[in-house]
Amino acid sequence: MPRTPNSAALVWFRRDLRIHDNAAIAHALSACERLYCAFVFDREILDALASKADRRVEFIAGSLRELDARLREAGGGLIVVHDLAQHAIPALAARLGVQAVFAARDYEPAAVLRDRQVDQQLRTEGRQLHLVKDQVIFEADEVLTATGRPFSVFTPYRNAWLRRLEAMSSASSGEPATTEQSTAELANHPANRRLAPLPAWLRDAINIPSPAELGTEPVKGVPSLAAIGFSPTDLESLAITPGERAGTALLEDFLPRMGHYRETRDYPAIKGPSYLSVHLRFGTVPIRRLVREAQRIERHHGIDTPAGEGARTWLSELIWRDFYFQILHHHPRVEDQSFKPEYERIEWESGEAGEALFAAWCEGRTGYPLIDAAIAQIRASGYMHNRLRMVTASFLCKDLGIDWRRGESWFAQHLNDYDLSANNGGWQWASSSGCDAQPYFRIFNPITQSQKFDPQGQFIRRYLPQLAGLSAAQIHAPWLLPVADQMRLGCVIGRDYPAPVVDHAQARLRTLLRYSVVKAQAAG
User: Fold this and answer.
1) How many whole angstroms separate alpha carbon 488 and alpha carbon 191?
2) E strands in 95-244
């Protein structure tokens, strides 16, 4: 789009709560001379939240305060509105007299509908909505099979994704291809590597509207949580710091550990993950920089070295993220339906017995220590280690026989980093109903998973102190201890810690029978 003299644009922040390497800002600057910046606390989203003490809302608010401060350094500021976004954005664009609205594209069905409504309203007023790629490396139809169809199996998708990345890297004289969609100066400016002061050309472009332009009281920054109907949480005590600076600091902390990621990522008691997921979810770190760093470490050490393999493994996790985004884009029905239609025939546990099992899982009372410790972790912090997400999901679906949708919905309420595409993809993977999912007859054993990935029981003891006195050999299946030993250790099963709600071996047989309808249909 050619830059129009004396033109103005509105940058609508959503899942990109940062200034540096921000595609919406970059594209807006390439087209317009003046920018206004806005965020909408969308009532449609907030009103649907189960709790008014939601860590995600507080994380967003904290990130907005930093974003507003950075914009004010540039002589501008952030306009924050609490309203329905489909009404607020066209109204704001009209009051400001902008020619266009720029925003990072969102792929969730509800967001797609909202953006369609905004686009239609803007068009009736002679304005345009420009949605640009920001939260993924490749989107929609950018990575397709040789026949031009979307992938439904991860490994060939990953291989095609990497080939495209390498081809683009070569074409850009060694510059990582991940900046290809942000050709404006902002995305490529050296200041993006560290949060350096904003360049003068950006400071000259950012504006803050006057009260007369807005027709309201002077802009005073981000409203308090109370002003939008929410209350503070324990975010600070959990050491979860919002904002672009905190996201950058976490990335810097992870970089020396990335080379060990492959060997440490599955052990919840070890500092193996990046812990960047909530920052990636709300865009306080740019996906492009994460990929560039993985490429840099892999190239520095070599792919055949342990450190190079660690970086490539972490890069694969980022590719899984793109993969699930494109699955949601091409198959929006997966939001509440199985990717494999035949899996809709499965009859899940229901009634009083099913409700009791589901409640035991939600409350961490299953009697399987690794499962209960993982549930305690998410309930206490809003975070769950990735290996444990797989194990607890498998346990709910294949040991307890509960519909994967119920678990997916429960995670959606509790995860700080909740993302529909990844959460849905993970649950459908665990239940075997999704694309490239584990076979239905692969059923995680909660005891052997515990012995393998928390061998000393360190993670279990952290979240289940009643089991702290048990040895590494005893802690994974405490019900097997003789009653006399239970009493001596002060952990009597059924009194101090629950007995198992199901026997895993018997549950496995029930699951194979439950899933036989899928096998029968495939055979037919």
Assistant:
1) 62
2) 100-104, 128-132
Work out the pLDDT band at 175, boundaries 50, 70, 90.
Answer: very low
Please determine, looking at this structure, whether the domain spanning 1-135 carries the CATH number 3.90.110.10. no
Residue 114 burial (CB < 10 Å; 0-12/13-18/19+)? buried
pLDDT at 217 > cutoff 70: no
Q: Which are the contacts of 160, defined by CB distance < 8 A and separation ≥ 6?
A: 143, 144, 145, 151
- The Cα–Cα gap between 81 and 93 comes to 13
Note the CATH number of domain 137-196+245-330. Answer: 1.25.40.80
pLDDT tens column, 63-83: 999 999 988 887 788 999 999
- Residue ranges, comma separated, of all CATH 1.10.579.10 domains in the chain are 341-523
* Residue type at position 347: E
Active-site annotation, residues: 317, 320, 348, 386, 404, 427
Sheet holding 78-83, edge to edge: 78-83, 32-42, 4-13, 100-104, 128-132
pTM over 0.85: yes
Q: What count of residues does the chain have?
A: 524
> For the chain, what percentages of helix, strand and coil (3-state, to nearest 5) are there?
55, 10, 35
Write down the CATH superfamily of domain 341-523: DNA Cyclobutane Dipyrimidine Photolyase, subunit A, domain 3 (1.10.579.10)
The CATH 1.25.40.80 portion of the chain extends over: 137-196+245-330
3-state secondary structure of 37: strand
